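Thread: "does anyone have the structure for this chain?"

Original post by V.I.:
We have the sequence but no experimental structure in hand. Need at least a predicted one for the grant figures.
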Amino acid sequence: MKRTPLTSLHQSLKARMVDFGGFYMPIQYTSIIEEHNAVRDHAGIFDVSHMGQVTITGKDASSFINYLLTNDIEAVADNRIMYSPMCYEDGGCVDDILVYKINSDKLMLITNASNTDKDFEWINKNKQGFDVKVENLSGTMGVVAFQGPKAVEILQKFTDLDLDKMGFFTFVEDVSVCGVKAMVSRNGYTGEDGFEIYTKAEDIEKVFMSLLDASAKPCGLGARDTLRFESALPLYGNELSKDIDPLSAGLKFFVKMDKKDFIGKKALESILESDDKKALAGLEMIDRGVPRTGYEVYNEDDQKVGYVTSGSFCPSLDKTCALALVDASYAKSGQNLFVEVRNKKLKAVTVKKPFYNKKYKK
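Reply from O.Q.:
Generated one for you, tokens below.
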């Protein structure tokens, strides 16, 4: 298994470690619920150094990104971040990524850890005809996500950068944080306000420990998943995959069909015109039971209408919920459905997403 620059630190903090996408990562330090609540109420810090970093540079960098992704980088200003699915020709997802636009000729893509090698190969496969250079920098950086309502107040003690002036989905390079050179972005994957901090691999432990000493709680992948789930943020392999297109996953906002061309456009046009659409529904369980990924969903006539993509108890809401890919006619709020859990069909009702209201900096 691959290790991040913080692996030894996680072990010294007695984290429970697991294999995640080929990386040796902390699933929890104390308890998932305790870490989840720390992010909702105070501030938590996550090691996200396993995420991939791929740079695309050259005079055609922006036009190549626009061909590669469904979203429109031309509409994004410098020093801003863009979220976008990246599709195959048939509309299925290669990955969903973040693009850091340094300028029109230099951009950095943040890929899901388990997809980095696949993404890098896909990007290189499709760069013909574009004057670009593609580099995989994964493994050379240390990255932490610092999330929660107290994140601004705590982090401000360690940098001269005026954090209050940073908008959501913006970033600043060459900043001093905890005495080391860093790039700071205002974004995250928890539904809370917060930041991601990028440094050289050898410098990230100083950042992590400084924030811990200032009352941040170390958090593992377990809490990261319950936090993103409550906020109905997609997880690649669950809500998105090679078999699930971004339109069915409810990401139409990030698919700019008015662009001249991009990989998968024709297939996505066909999906939009189809009478057999799928949609991602939010479910709240009425009967007691936890819906897991892959569990089948039925209507009141006992017909299968879809399946669960993610399910969990929601600590912030004291409810058990699910995201489910269903026939589009069953995605509207207020409909009675059933999830088959251990050979029992348990009652659920469709509800609006997200389950938890996001608290991002405007």
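V.I.: this helps a lot. The mean pLDDT is 97.
O.Q.: and The two ends are 39 Å apart (CA to CA).
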